[in-house]
Automatic annotation (TrEMBL):
Keywords carried by this UniProt record: Signal
Alphabetized Pfam families for the sequence: DUF4331
Taxonomic path: Bacteria, Pseudomonadati, Bacteroidota, Flavobacteriia, Flavobacteriales
Signal sequence coordinates: 1-22
Protein origin, superkingdom: Bacteria
Alphabetical list of InterPro entries matching this protein: DUF4331
Protein name: DUF4331 domain-containing protein
Length: 217
């Protein structure tokens, strides 16, 4: 059994049928560990199949096209999606993603061994795996038991006008421009995406979702 320690994370509240996102892209110096541990965005939204929910966790933000080809998921870092389905802000289910060689392996959704900052890999709840897509190649996906999986580089989908934001903070601008300038245009992230039947997530119409990267110790 393996345990891991939380490095950093982001949170959001997801309501079935809506897409919501939390993002930071660059962590504060006191908490930043960089690289594979840095979560940029967390998304949760209803799938094209309305019986499913999709969870996406993006890491390693601000990758230039030249750097993306060399960027890799870390085998010593687990990406964990936490799902609270009863409104107490404690995870009732987790979905874990762990890289081994050229594949990403998924476990859950399953009840966590111990809620909180340390996790045990739920090896008995293996749900599937997918070959990690390469930069510039066609996206590879996999399906198993009604779930769908993806892992690999993607264009950063988050839009933010950082220059205008700094101008607002400095008092030289009063608001954002329309249209604004996409600061993250042309940069990439490493994404883990899993689509899950809602029936696997409990009977609540609302779930709270947050993600963590947890480093092996």
């Amino acid at each position: 059994m393996k345990k891991s320690k939380m490095i950093l994370g982001l949170s959001l509240v997801a309501v079935s049928g809506l897409i919501l996102v939390a993002a930071d892209h660059i962590d504060a110096p006191a908490t930043a560990s960089g690289g594979a541990n840095d979560i940029t965005d967390v998304y949760a939204f209803q799938g094209q199949d309305t019986n499913n929910l999709v969870f996406a966790v993006n890491t390693q933000g601000l990758l230039s096209p030249n750097a993306t080809g060399a960027a890799k998921f870390d085998e010593n870092t687990m990406i964990e999606i936490n799902i609270d389905n009863n409104g107490d802000n404690v995870e009732d289910l987790v979905i874990q993603a762990i890289k081994r060689d050229d594949k990403m392996y998924f476990f859950g959704p399953v009840a966590p061994g111990t809620p909180g900052t340390s996790s045990t890999i739920k090896t008995a709840a293996a749900s599937g795996s997918v070959t990690i897509s390469s930069y510039g190649a066609a996206a590879l996906t996999a399906e198993n038991n009604g779930m769908k999986f993806f892992a690999g580089p993607r264009d950063d989908p988050f839009f933010f006008d950082l220059g205008q934001f700094k101008a607002i903070l400095a008092g030289t601008a009063t608001g954002f421009k329309n249209p604004g300038t996409d600061t993250f245009a042309g940069t990439n992230v490493l994404s883990v995406v899993v689509e899950v039947p809602k029936a696997m997530l409990g009977t609540s119409g609302t779930v709270n979702v947050w993600a963590e990267t947890k480093k092996k110790q």
